[in-house]
Amino acid sequence: MLVTAPAAARRTAPAAVPGRKAVISREDLIAAALKLLGPHRSVSTLSLREVAREAGIAPNSFYRHFRDMDELAVALIDQAGRSLRKIIGEARHRATTERSVVRSSVETFMEQLSADEKLLHILLREGSVGSDAFKRAVERELQFFEDELREDLVRLAEAHGTGIYEAALVSKAITRLIFAMGATAMDMPPERHSDIAEQMIVMLRMIIVGTQTMAEQGGHRDERL
Amino acid sequence: MLVTAPAAARRTAPAAVPGRKAVISREDLIAAALKLLGPHRSVSTLSLREVAREAGIAPNSFYRHFRDMDELAVALIDQAGRSLRKIIGEARHRATTERSVVRSSVETFMEQLSADEKLLHILLREGSVGSDAFKRAVERELQFFEDELREDLVRLAEAHGTGIYEAALVSKAITRLIFAMGATAMDMPPERHSDIAEQMIVMLRMIIVGTQTMAEQGGHRDERL
DNA sequence: CAAATGTCTATACACCTGTATATTAATACG
DNA sequence: CGTATTAATATACAGGTGTATAGACATTTG
Are B163 and B212 spatial neighbours (Cβ–Cβ below 8 Å)? Predict the structure, then answer.
């Protein structure tokens, strides 16, 4: 993978390589790119020069850290995914003792959205534009999310003795739905976010009740609709 | 609305206005833009000059028809929405006598996707990037879709004597889910499209079974999950 | 036919983009 | 110390962009 190779290189001990000390790092460039992003500024519209300017370096110095803007974009997605998974993971863990998993996860998700954490915005917004590498990176993060959710679902289903029909599809549906709803929520005033969260919760509950009911009936509902 | 005003102006009888006869029309420009679009070319990356070049006119002539590229983009979305609604409408009508509504609608949707009709691609792909006007146009089309679906759902629920819990949310969930799944399907080889369609159908059935079950139980399921 | 009027083109400007080349600056090692 | 090695810069180029301005062309109207 293109992005992990240099990351691995940096991970080795910084044992006294000759040459000039790096005044700027990949992380600095990522931070500069993040600073430029906003509700009206998407990753795909950022230019190399712009990021370099924001980071306070000459345009050409950019190449010391990334092959092109696309590689930076993938790094951004990587970071966004890691951050989101960590947060949601904590939310799930926290939830088992307190409120329901779906409520606590959804609310955490929406809190993160409101917190103007631009990372989440990237993940939600730009999954379908950009280079192939970029799209694949986003898809990979969705897949991670989906897998973790599926494991949680079957675990919880067993714990509660409820059935679950097509767990993989359930988690896929939930993931896509959450991300789609989150994306539209981004373009709304924050005071409506709690409404959206409630809508999400009802939607998820429908899916869960659906899969449970279908599990009880063996999935053999007629195709009346 | 910005785009309907000039459209209305053109709709008046073309009764002998003085001046030179227009050699190119808005529709020609829209067609040129469509020709440029593709799996690796999104609306937001089209330049005014590029579209003008493709249409065979001087860059400045563009302004005779659209204020800027954004206005063209909104017109594109408009057309895409109309086209999709028409097709899905026919599918729904056709379905009542033949197979299930959800199956027939989903299959029609995916057929349209495979048919390389770029219009649908625009609608699916670029809902979250671009100007505010553009995003609002996409959101409006989704809303149309959603409203029609809701009417259909309550009608069918009454016809079959099944309940339906929170019909508005059901149609919203289905719409967003279909569009999200469709967007990811676009980036996949066509031979996987039928798989995706089957996945969609199961997902939708879960939601429908869920809303029916919740209607029977008055929506008072416990929050175990 | 002439005048008016709307359509289209040509030219030009200022700006921005990615990147190739050459040069300078700073650090580590012998 | 000097030298090798790497980081960062300055300059420059070719090409693209949106759009302002002015003029040419065609067509309807008086």
Answer: yes
| Residue matched to tokens 């590029």 | B50
Report helix, strand or coil for B166: coil
User: pLDDT tens, A125-168?
Assistant: 988 899 999 999 999 999 999 999 999 999 999 999 999 999 99
Residues with Cβ within 8 Å of residue A40, at least 6 apart in sequence: B132
What values do phi and psi take at A41, rounded to 5? -140, 110
At residue B6, the 3 state secondary structure works out as helix
Q: Which nucleotides of D are covered by protein (CB under 7 A)?
A: 4-12, 16-22, 25-29
Determine how many CB atoms are found less than 10 A away from the CB of residue B139: 16
Burial class (CB in 10 A: 0-12, 13-18, 19+), B111: middle
Size of the A and B interface in Cβ pairs below 8 Å: 144
The residue among B46, B212, B225 with the most chain A CBs within 10 A of its CB, best to mutate, is B225
Measured between alpha carbons, how far is residue B143 from residues A161, B48, B156 in Å? 38, 29, 20
> Any atom of strand C under 7 A from CB of A166?
no
Nucleotides of C under 7 A from a protein CB: 4-12, 16-22, 25-29
For residue A98, give the DSSP letter: S
**What's the pLDDT at B9?**
42
Using CA atoms, how far residue B215 sits from A165, B32, B166, B208, in Å, is 20, 50, 8, 10
Give the pLDDT confidence of B19-54 residue by residue, as tens digits: 788 889 999 999 999 999 988 899 999 999 999 999
Q: What is the four-CA torsion angle of A115, A117, A122, A124, rounded to 10 degrees?
A: -30
Phi/psi zone of residue A18: left (φ > 0), alpha (ψ -120 to 50 degrees), beta?
beta
